Design the sequence.
């Protein structure tokens, strides 16, 4: 990402993050334009105040992680490679900072990776179940439903 970092993220990264979040947050129509003006500046202010107070090496890790995540989700598609890259970087940080006395480093890394994948899978399932229970339908599901409907219609004729 281009731009100057005062805190952990650039203004462009904060803007991209807010754009993605605002598309997925339920907001009244009148509030959305105001939120789009106020929230990115508010987030930038918080980032600038708090970001510089985070000690090294955590500051570098957070900067790298935020850049990786924002770059990955900007196109609204996550590839397996992007997910693996983010997970591997996360595991490097965790493995570097946490030591389990009974495990060697390789086993430790595998355990942390599997726990992270389990948590990510559980979070994904919860989010997916909430989106289907609120009536939101993905484009993929919509296409499948349309194909089924047209097959039923032609079978009736």
Sequence:
């Amino acid at each position: 990402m281009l731009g100057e970092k005062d805190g952990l993220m650039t203004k462009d990264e904060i803007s991209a993050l807010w754009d993605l979040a605002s598309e997925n947050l339920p907001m009244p129509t009148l509030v959305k334009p105001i939120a789009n003006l106020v929230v990115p500046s508010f987030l930038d202010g918080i980032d600038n105040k708090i970001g510089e107070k985070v000690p090294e090496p955590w500051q570098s890790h957070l900067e790298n992680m935020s850049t990786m995540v924002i770059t990955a989700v900007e196109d609204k598609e996550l590839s397996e490679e992007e997910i693996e890259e983010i997970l591997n970087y996360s595991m490097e940080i965790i493995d570097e900072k946490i030591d389990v006395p009974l495990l060697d480093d390789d086993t430790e890394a595998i355990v942390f990776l599997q726990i992270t994948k389990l948590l990510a899978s559980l979070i994904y399932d919860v989010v997916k179940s909430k989106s289907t229970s609120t009536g939101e339908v993905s484009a993929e599901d919509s296409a499948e439903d349309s194909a089924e409907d047209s097959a039923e219609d032609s079978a009736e004729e």
